[in-house]
Amino acid sequence: MEMPKPGPEHRKLEQMAGGWTSKEKMHPSQWDPKGGTAEGRIKNRIALGGFIVTGDYGQEREGKTTFEGHSVFTYDKSERCYLLYWWDSTGMPADVFRGSFEGSKLVMTSRNAMGHFRLTYEFPGPGTMRSTMEMSEDGESWRTMFEADSTRQD
Question: What share of the chain is helix, strand, coil (3-state, %, to 5)?
């Protein structure tokens, strides 16, 4: 039997691979009442023969790590959607986001006990990535939690 190979959908995720630094704007929320700015560091790598992109994220404020996360991105042919499995330093169980590319944007949503979340990754040009996280209580009215402009470092 011939082993499966990643398809073009998996290859779209490859643009996320590499080391990134980001400037982040945190909007006021229940987790960050004052909001503010932060520095982000991301290390993403292609794994499992090209079927996934796995990553580690760290956020720093005033020289201290304030938040960490681990991600696994893939494409599910049976569901015909992209999946993001996300764990972070809040200690909550993994969140699962589902979504699709809309042009050069990957838009993914998730729902958990705290509400609805929408995560958007844009790729405006080589070596640049913009991400936005929004939250909603009802899945219709959204407010921005953070915006990040990232630059590839390798």
Answer: 10, 65, 30
Cα–Cα distance list, 35 to 53, 69, 120 (Å)? 30, 19, 19
pLDDT means over runs of 10, the chain (154 residues): 93 97 94 92 98 98 96 97 96 95 96 93 95 95 97 94
Whole-model pTM over 0.90: yes
Which residue has tokens 């006990």? 113
The three-state DSSP-derived secondary structure of 85-154 is: EEEECCCCCCEEEEEEEECCEEEEEEEECCEEEEEEEEEEECCEEEEEEEEECCCCCCEEEEEEEEEECC
Q: Per the structure block, which two tokens stand in for 136? A: 């909603």
